[in-house]
Amino acid sequence: MRRISISISVALGALLALAAVFWWLWPATSSELIRDDAALMSADQRARVAEYHDYLLKDHDIDYRVVTANGLGDINRSAVAHFEELAETIRSESGRALLLIVDADQDVLRLEIGYALEGVFPDAFAAYVEHRQMVPFFERGRVADGILATTELVITRAQRAADNAGFEGEAWIVGSGGGGATTAARLGAGARAAPEDAQQASAEAGRTPSATLQVYFDAMAARNDDPGLDIYTEATRRMLNDWVMTPAQMDNVARIYRRCPAEALRYSDDGRYAVVRYPPGERACAPFFFERVDDSWALDLTMMQRAIRFGRTNAWRFDLDAEHPYMFAFDDWRFDRHGFPKAAN
Q1: pTM score of the predicted model
Q2: Do the beta carbons of residue 68 and residue 36 sit within 8 Å?
Q3: What is the DSSP letter of 195?
Q4: What pLDDT digit, counting tens, does each position of 185-210 carry?
Q5: SS3 148
Q6: What does the pLDDT read at residue 35?
Q7: Are residues 98 and 6 in contact, defined by beta-carbon separation less than 8 angstroms?
Q8: Which of 339, 152, 142, 337 is closest to 248 using CA atoms?
């Protein structure tokens, strides 16, 4: 069995109980969690990743660290050496450790998983998040975003493991598109063009919001990342032109919403806008916003981006200060001060 194997952060060994308590009381600084010797992230980005990884520790007892460097030589041996070195400052009480190591000179990355997590994050998961979530961000020079996006998948898998959920139904089980925990990072290489003979299914907007939403889910299941699809508003198409839509993100949308029971459609009084929403208890299932365009309904992802945020547990909430024309659909709900929805009145 491989010594370790997954994505995003460096980690851990075993500390004395007193030291563990100290780490829990005093969050680590970004320099302790993120060692960015290759300068792939700004100070603000390092702090943001460190903050997210602090939450991962507090919520799931997973100590996840990141090392970037230049000219490490054999990255597999280097990853093991870094892992053993950093194990001296382990913060996880149960020894649950993750390490991401990136060699910018060699343009490779390796994701390592500690012994205590091998049953939660198998090799196939590690390969999947590398190829299908992290690298698409790295290609565009967005290293911090790629790490954070991958951490979201780590949290989702950790949540399912805590609920004793098996691997069935998870996209990475089918195939990762590449094996192993070491892969080309493609730092700043730019997004890869689709093969000339590649054809993506057309996706026409429906005559109802529900019909358009089903087309969207079908597009996500097919990993259709075309920003010009008819199902999007014009503003959404412009936004998606600069968007990173990874295969893992599309897989996740298709998987999560497959189990979400939608409530009745809600329309604005003027018939221009509509919302598909889900019960407040479905915390992973955010509402969808639609705008009427001629005789069909288009998905308005721009307003969703403006209004909806996801917390550290991947639960959605509203940005209560954001302006958008869709609050009519929630007049029977209440929200706490953080914007999390509560049961309908």
Answers
A1: 0.81
A2: yes
A3: P
A4: 999 988 776 654 445 667 899 999 99
A5: helix
A6: 92
A7: yes
A8: 152
